[in-house]
Amino acid sequence: MRQVALNTHISGTFNIELENLRNSVLTMGGEVEQQLVDTLKAVKHNHAALAEKVVLNDLKINSMEIQIDEECLRIIAKRHPTASDLRLIMTISKAITDIERMGDEIERIAKLVTRNKLPSSDTIKSSMLLIGERVAAMMRGTFDAFARQDEAAALEVYDQDNRIDSEYKRLLSYTTSEMQKSTEDMQDWLDVLWAMRSLERIGDRCKNVCEYVIYLTRGTDVRHTPLENMQQKLEDLT
Amino acid sequence: MLKLFEHNTLNVDDISAEQTAVEVRNLNLWFGNKHVLNDISMRIPKNKITALIGQSGCGKSTLISCFNRLNDLYDGCKYNGEIIIDGRNINSRKINVSRLRTNVGMVFQRPNPFPMSIYENVCYGLKLQGVKVRRHLDDAVESALKQAALWDEVKDRLFESAHVLSGGQQQRLVIARALALKPDILLLDEPTSALDPLTTLFIEELMDSLKKQCTIIIVTHNMQQASRVSDYTAFFHQGRLIEYADSDTLFTMPEKKQTEDYITGRYG
Known about the structure:
- The structure holds two protein chains of two kinds.
- Chain A is mainly alpha-helical.
- Helix content of chain A is about 85%, strand content about 0%.
- Chain A contains seven helices and no strands.
- The model of chain A has no long low-confidence stretch (mean pLDDT about 95).
- Helices cover about 35% and strands about 25% of the residues of chain B.
- In chain B, strands 6-7-8-3-9-10 form a six-stranded mixed β-sheet, with helices on both faces.
- In chain B, helix 3 crosses helix 4, helix 3 (about 120-130) packs parallel to helix 6 (about 165-180) and helix 4 (about 135-145) packs across helix 6 (about 165-180).
- The interface of A and B includes residues 27, 71 and 78 of A.
């Protein structure tokens, strides 16, 4: 594991800037994580006010993305970062796009509650919550891997997405069969399908961030690489 | 909305008189018939680093030499306009130039230690001012060398010749010599152009720590350096001030095309 040391530059100000930048991503990640926790709670208890808060809070996450991007731009223009510093800034600039999109997906799920479109089927709802818990755990692992610049942890989190994908497929199949039984509420069913899809997409976004963590620590781009090949690629590098 | 980053640089138009270290008003300067500085007006803020950039011959070194009246030494130099430091126009004939130069220290491109010991170099200006008490001189030397981040490297050889020091150490010694006089303003004319990249970074870090106690104005050809160290940047071309802004803005979104062309290397 090769960590990017943020506090060893001759310029103390540069050290502080990088540290603040990294912390800001963790703050943004923490906000998104809380949004997901609140949304799952709102889904579970049909808590419209909490879901409304999640929808409003998404603006805060959007603003964070813009601020962090501006800071990345400022640091590139002023500090001319190279090597691991440059990788860190590129990683952050890309990761926050995915984190912001996670926020959008969460907002979409929260809107199921605010619009009173939660599925009537308890089986579907509890399966969604189960997938949601797994996604939340994956999200936590992703931000931990980023914070610790831990590629092994990133790979572990990456692997969790397979389980989420297969559970999503099972739920999708069950939901479509339920849909066929009551075709009159097709728009409501579509909203539920979109929300389920959003949960699955958050897992994919977490995977993207994990790939950036590996790029950060190793300088190797592992995007669009199957997990087995990715592991092999990293072993070859050691 | 939650604010993630704090950058406390003001817009140049918002710098108040109280926050200003040097105010230049309609400054024109000629060497013989050559109009070297053309109607320059700007407010340089206190306790910040301001970089002056531009091609060779654009007038940036001439401008900082105006701030301690160094251009007076050249025959055929004439100027008009005002430069206000500490509430007084330093272009006035009534100004005590020696006192001005004590208050406005200057460091040049090549380190120029005097051919004497490290200790004598640092306290040279103080002795000229008539300070004779050894204890006061000792304290001033130690304090200036510490501020210049040189004390730990030279404290055991203060009475050795300054010429045994490396280029980077000599430059820090020259900075210490200026700091011993406790200047409010420190002018740096390409202070690192003769130094290696690592030593350059050490000097830049030193500047950053010094701005707490004095205002720093640096002339540099190195745009990366200007963007790294400065809070404000002024771009000059052929004796005119083309653009002056906080460095974050100037290096990410300059207003003038001429500035954009210069900082992106499209100048031709």
